[in-house]
Amino acid sequence: MSDAILKALDGIEAKLKHFSDKADGEAQTVGKISADTKAALDAIGIQQRELADRLTEMEQKATAQPEAKGVSSWGEQFIKSANYGAFAGGNLNKLRVEVKNTLTGSDTNVAPQRNAGIVGGAVLPFSMEALLPSTTTTSNAIEFTKEASFTNSAAEAAEGSAKAESALTWSLVNMPVSTVAHWIKISKQLAADAPALAAYVNTRMRYGVNQKVDTQLVVGDGTAPNISGTYDTGNFTAHGYANAALGSTLKKLVLIRKIMADLYSNGYPADAIVLNPADWATIEIELFTTAAGQTLYSVNDAGQARLFGVPVIQAIGMAADTFQVGRFSEAYMVYNREGVVVEMSDSDSDNFTKNLITLRAERRLALATEKPAAVRGGDLTPA
Fold first, then answer.
1. Over the stretch 232-287, which tens digit does the pLDDT of each residue have?
2. For residue 327, how far is the Cα from the chain centroid?
3. Are residues 198 and 278 in the same domain?
4. Residues 351 and 244 in one domain
5. Strand locations in 105-242, DSSP E?
6. Residue 69 in contact with residue 109, Cβ under 8 Å?
7. Confidence class of residue 90 from pLDDT cuts 50, 70 and 90?
8. I need a labelling partner for 159 at 20 to 30 A (CA). Which of 142, 169, 254, 349 fits?
9. How many other β-carbons are positioned within 10 Å of the β-carbon of residue 353?
10. How far is residue 193's CA from residue 345's CA, in Å, rounded to a whole number?
11. How many separate domains does the chain show?
12. Among 372, 381, 131, which residue's Cα sits nearest to residue 231?
């Protein structure tokens, strides 16, 4: 761009020489320089200095910061303009060029800041699995004998008289192992070129399986291939209370406390209360916004929500306005046949020709309900 700058300055110098000669002629002829000629000389001097300063600044900017490909700099737009050519050739006394501001915030040579790691999605706690006891199995089904009924007729007896007869029945339970699984496809290039992202996909697939298991442990209906969850029919005892028996205030609290007393009387001191998160929020609000509730509000112990001293488990799988209270440690057992297994294959469908990999994550387990009488539940706002 130095040749163009020199050419522009030469043009101004030519105009300056022209008016200087004219001024000399006027001085010799009339004895003084006309006001128009003097003004023209002053204007050319100012233009000369301004143009030199502006072109020098443009050249420095062009040298210091490369222009984006395909975008003209201000200096280039200035030199290429038709008005500039006329001005440089001495045909214009003034020069006005509109320069388009195409460079604001668009320099492709400035690299963005790349943060390490991957911003993950939401992660729910596995509340039910943390609550229920578990063990392992090597079979595809769990079979056990459990007490079906017990009639306790024990009574005092006079000497020589007949003694009371009690009754005890048993039932055989067979619970098949269920499979929870899902799959996703990723490119082979992703697996090879972005190991951190591929590892994240692997982790997320495991999480998806366990999240579904945590929900099924509550609401699985037992119809193959579903797990038979804690709230499945026959896996708990209906509480049997009607609205009229709960008084006029804090009815949810009254219901839960009455059930806890019933369980204790039957040999099952409650070790957990399972609620939908929205229902627990409602109960907490009642506790600290009513005078009666404030006297009971002591719900947190090292981060664990508690009600009447019993841990409250917020389970996403528990439907709103339903709940369970009981001795979960005796009522249920999770049998793990296989933990979460993630397998990969490029032989699925047309993966080989498309350079794709199928990831499949699955887990096999069963939930056995051994003592349904140990847990009671049902509607949180009974009719």
1. 999 999 999 999 999 988 999 999 999 999 999 999 999 999 999 999 999 989 88
2. 34
3. yes
4. yes
5. 134-136, 141-151, 167-176, 178-187, 237-238
6. no
7. low
8. 169
9. 8
10. 17
11. 2
12. 372
Q: Is residue 116, in this structure, part of any structural domain at all?
A: no
Contact between 237 and 376 (Cβ < 8 Å): yes
pTM (2 decimals)? 0.66
CA distance 82 to 79: 8
- Max mean pLDDT range (4-8, 22-26, 34-38, 260-264): 260-264
Main-chain dihedrals φ then ψ at residue 137, nearest 5 degrees: -145, 155
Q: Tell me which DSSP letter residue 323 carries.
A: E
Distances (CA, A) of 176 to 22, 128, 186, 212, 331: 111, 20, 33, 18, 18
Domain at 361, CATH number: 3.30.2400.10
Residue 55 in any domain: the answer is yes
Query: Hey, what amino acid is at 204?
Result: R
Cα–Cα distance, 363 to 340 (Å, whole number): 5
